[in-house]
């Protein structure tokens, strides 16, 4: 319930703004239809585009899946709610996570020749139990991360089409997202993400010249600080700062969309360099957004009903319906770029990793059909919870990232490089790290929100090392995956299919 003092940006539902949105939806649907036949050639094509995505495409696809609603909405919302310095810290932490992904597992993962991260872990540890546990964590994280993305979709649809409303806006978005992903698989996801990444980068910075022309660089910050003296700094508790920063440094190594995207790279070099170039785009776009777009929103309207409306407040003040429609399309691009990759990761875990781990034999055609069904069921289930979201978008994405990192960081990041690591250690770390995060978060035992990872990640690492050292060394056969992951050179590894 919004109090009388709180403000929600409002625009007229003009035909120009609606046209921009409709054209955007037609574009992504056309891409899904175009890649329908190609995505059905194999499960590898459906889930990782055959591992053939070149660097120039991957850079913007990485940017799109990294930015998502959590950055476009959430991190600017962090600046509006907690200060620009806090938001900048989160942006830097995300870039540090991209570097960690680039350095630690992007290349080994691509060399593995598989098309899901749980399958990568199975190959590393030669254990179907490892794959099963990881597949369940990936499925839960993929589905949960859909909720804040669809929350952002509802906000955007309501912004352009206020007569449609938030709830119906979510349902319309879900149908469009699920349709083009189920039609074109990762091929459609990749090329829509490429386009969306370019759109998001441009539209993140689009308000800046208009803001500077009206307020000036210094005037924007002084105007924001006149309404909130702490805007340029940080008003969040320091334990929360540490927790959120730590979470996003490790998030790339746990969230499903990043591993799935790396596996689609043409080779190991592309997987690594894509993250490097993405970081340059990301930090330049979102540091400027945190200080100046969120700053302009604070200067113009310090009483927004939710911090996630900061971008809309600026669009309403300075632009007409065409630019507002383009801005809404860019914001939907931020939503869709993660939602589509998450739907693919969810589909792969439920229809490929979990059945194979349980020795349920499915043909490639059956896996693809089951995967398509999972996309639709998962999307509508997430939409149900997004109708009454549990918090602002940046907080929701951080919570899920913390859980994924707690469960998967030791087995993925440390296990990729520690030759002594074994399956019992990996299983124990996933159960202890992920389980302790759920207990601490649901029980509310930490003194400050979003600080759970400061306990659960170290606990998972300690468990991983202790159980590994207390159990037998891996055999030569069990180390075959480890050896393959670290072969020198960047010759593309053949993507494994069920027919091989």
From TrEMBL:
The gene is panF. It is found in: Cell membrane. It comes from Natronorubrum tibetense GA33. This is Sodium/panthothenate symporter. Belongs to the sodium:solute symporter (SSF) (TC 2.A.21) family. The keyword Cell membrane applies. GO terms for cellular component: plasma membrane. Its main location: membrane. The keyword DNA repair does not apply. It is a multi-pass membrane protein. Keywords: Cell membrane, Ion transport, Membrane, Sodium, Sodium transport, Symport, Transmembrane, Transmembrane helix, Transport. It comes from the Archaea. GO terms for molecular function: symporter activity. It holds the Pfam family SSF. The chain crosses the membrane at residues 17-36, 56-80, 86-107, 128-148, 168-189, 201-226, 238-259, 280-300, 370-387, 393-414, 426-447, 453-471.
């Amino acid at each position: 319930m919004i109090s009388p003092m709180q403000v929600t940006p409002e625009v007229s539902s003009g035909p120009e703004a609606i046209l921009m949105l409709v054209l955007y939806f037609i574009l992504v649907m056309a891409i899904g239809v175009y890649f329908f036949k190609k995505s059905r050639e194999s499960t590898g094509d459906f889930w990782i585009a055959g591992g053939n995505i070149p660097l120039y495409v991957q850079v913007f696809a990485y940017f799109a899946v990294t930015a998502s609603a959590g950055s476009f909405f959430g991190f600017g919302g962090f600046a509006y709610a907690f200060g620009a310095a806090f938001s900048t810290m989160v942006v830097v932490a995300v870039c540090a996570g991209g570097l960690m992904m680039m350095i630690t597992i992007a290349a080994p993962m691509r060399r593995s020749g598989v098309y899901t991260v749980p399958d990568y872990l199975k190959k590393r540890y030669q254990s179907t139990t490892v794959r099963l546990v990881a597949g369940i964590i990936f499925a839960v994280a993929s589905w949960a991360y859909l909720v804040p993305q669809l929350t952002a979709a509802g906000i955007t649809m309501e912004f352009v089409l206020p007569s449609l409303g938030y709830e119906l806006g979510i349902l319309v978005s879900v149908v469009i997202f699920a349709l083009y992903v189920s039609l074109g698989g990762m091929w459609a996801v990749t090329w829509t993400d490429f386009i969306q990444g370019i759109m998001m980068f441009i539209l993140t910075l689009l308000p800046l010249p208009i803001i500077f022309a009206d307020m000036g660089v210094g005037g924007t910050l002084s105007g924001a600080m006149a309404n909130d003296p702490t805007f340029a700094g940080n008003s969040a508790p320091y334990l929360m700062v540490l927790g959120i920063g730590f979470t996003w440094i490790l998030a790339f190594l746990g969230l499903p969309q990043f591993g799935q995207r790396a596996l689609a790279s043409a080779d190991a070099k592309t997987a690594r360099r894509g993250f490097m170039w993405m970081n340059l785009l990301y930090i330049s776009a979102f540091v400027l957004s945190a200080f100046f777009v969120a700053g302009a929103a604070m200067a113009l309207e310090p009483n927004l009903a939710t911090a996630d409306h900061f971008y809309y407040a600026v669009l309403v003040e300075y632009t007409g319906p065409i630019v507002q429609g383009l801005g809404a399309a860019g914001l939907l691009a931020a939503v869709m770029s993660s939602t589509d990759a998450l739907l693919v990761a969810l589909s792969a875990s439920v229809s490929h990793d979990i059945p194979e781990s349980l020795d349920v034999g499915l043909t490639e055609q059956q896996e693809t059909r089951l995967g398509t069904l999972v996309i639709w069921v998962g999307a509508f289930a997430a939409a149900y919870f997004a109708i009454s979201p549990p918090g602002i978008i940046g907080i929701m994405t951080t919570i899920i990232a913390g859980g994924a990192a707690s469960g998967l960081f030791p087995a993925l990041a440390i296990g990729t490089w520690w030759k002594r690591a074994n399956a019992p250690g990996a299983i124990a770390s996933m159960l202890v790290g992920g389980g302790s995060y759920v207990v601490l978060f649901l029980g509310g035992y930490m003194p400050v929100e979003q600080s759970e990872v400061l306990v659960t990640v170290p606990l998972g690492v300690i468990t991983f090392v202790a159980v590994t050292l207390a159990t037998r060394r891996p055999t030569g056969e069990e180390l075959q995956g480890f050896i393959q992951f670290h072969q020198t050179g960047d010759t593309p590894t053949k993507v494994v299919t069920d027919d091989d």
